[in-house]
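Saturday, quiet lab. Running sequence design on the structure tokens for the scaffold JK sent over.
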């Protein structure tokens, strides 16, 4: 599963930097950051993370600067493919059972009609 999380920060001081964590551990990978310096010394910054995960994961992004810190977090839940597959199979099996049951009832009805026609001709 591929996930992308963006954090856009309103204009702030030029010493801003981001710290990304995955399940409570700081990420060592190079995380892209775009900054745009504003004329008054502040900066507009954007950081994002791309990751491939196989299990539910919590991401935390902290923005740190001399003006203060902010942290946001998100929980990405991964549904196990075999669970989703089993649920799909169960729905399909139920649908097939309903169709087979309807077919059986129709065949019984035809059988009764056929038998009644056979009795009338004797």
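Result came back. Writing it out in full:
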């Amino acid at each position: 599963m591929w996930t992308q999380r963006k954090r856009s920060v309103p204009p702030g001081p030029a010493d801003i930097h981001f710290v990304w964590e995955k399940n409570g551990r700081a990420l060592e990978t190079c995380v892209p950051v775009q900054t745009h310096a504003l004329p008054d010394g502040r900066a507009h910054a954007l950081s994002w993370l791309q990751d491939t995960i196989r299990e539910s994961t919590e991401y935390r992004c902290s923005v740190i600067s001399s003006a203060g810190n902010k942290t946001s977090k998100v929980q990405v839940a991964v549904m196990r493919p075999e669970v989703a597959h089993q649920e799909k199979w169960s729905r399909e099996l139920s649908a097939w059972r309903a169709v087979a049951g309807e077919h059986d009832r129709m065949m019984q009805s035809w059988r009764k009609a056929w038998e009644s026609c056979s009795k009338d001709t004797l």
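Notes for JK: The first strand starts at residue 2 and ends at 13. The chain is about 35% helix and 45% strand. Ask whether to fix the surface positions before the next round.
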